[in-house]
TrEMBL record:
<dbReference type="InterPro" id="IPR016192">
    <property type="entry name" value="APOBEC/CMP_deaminase_Zn-bd"/>
</dbReference>
<dbReference type="InterPro" id="IPR016193">
    <property type="entry name" value="Cytidine_deaminase-like"/>
</dbReference>
<protein>
    <submittedName>
        <fullName>Nucleoside deaminase</fullName>
    </submittedName>
</protein>
<keyword id="KW-0479">Metal-binding</keyword>
<keyword id="KW-0862">Zinc</keyword>
<dbReference type="InterPro" id="IPR002125">
    <property type="entry name" value="CMP_dCMP_dom"/>
</dbReference>
<feature type="domain" description="CMP/dCMP-type deaminase">
    <location>
        <begin position="2"/>
        <end position="114"/>
    </location>
</feature>
<dbReference type="Pfam" id="PF00383">
    <property type="entry name" value="dCMP_cyt_deam_1"/>
</dbReference>
Length: 166
């Protein structure tokens, strides 16, 4: 659990950086089976003007050849995220063959898609090989909730952007 906490704190630091960059506060890190840090990512949708620049996708992209090599050799990678992955990021996780996913905060009311997609029974063989840990640390979960609440009033929140059009 101490190792999980360590990497979730790193993901949370990336989420804090994302909010400082005025984008959705999500951070992610990927580690190998020996708990070596492979890659970090954070949401960069607004800074990069790329709607696919989500934290988990960025971490997978940043893992580069290590991720490709792990997929071919079936090595165990863990992805840590500060928020439940959305449907797009869940697809990335499934097809990158990540074998363990740990996140700080469920996103039932937002774009959280991991559990919803898993519950559809689509890609069951892919979901069945992934170990999932949801919301393991209450204090870190609360820190992510604070970030999410801060996002609600951010200038780049879609509600703020739409209000500025009026």
């Amino acid at each position: 659990m101490d190792i999980d906490r360590h990497f979730l704190e790193m993901a949370l630091e990336e989420a804090e950086k994302a909010l400082e960059e005025n984008t959705y506060p999500v951070g992610s890190v990927i580690v190998d089976e020996h708990f070596n840090l492979i890659a970090k990512g954070r949401n960069r949708v607004h800074p990069s003007q790329d709607i696919t620049a989500h934290a988990e996708i960025e971490a997978i992209r940043n893992a580069g050849s290590a991720m490709f090599d792990a997929k071919i050799k079936n090595k165990k990678f863990t992805l840590y995220s500060s928020l439940e992955p959305c449907p797009m990021c869940t697809g990335g996780i499934l097809f990158a063959k990540i074998q363990r996913v740990v996140w700080l905060l469920n996103d039932d009311e937002g774009f959280g898609g991991y559990k919803r997609l898993r519950d559809t029974s689509i890609f069951l063989e892919k979901f069945d090989r992934i170990e999932v840990m949801e919301e393991p640390f209450e204090d870190l979960k609360q820190r992510q909730m604070i970030l999410m609440n801060s996002w609600k009033t951010n200038i780049n929140n879609v509600t703020s952007l739409r209000n500025n059009l009026s």
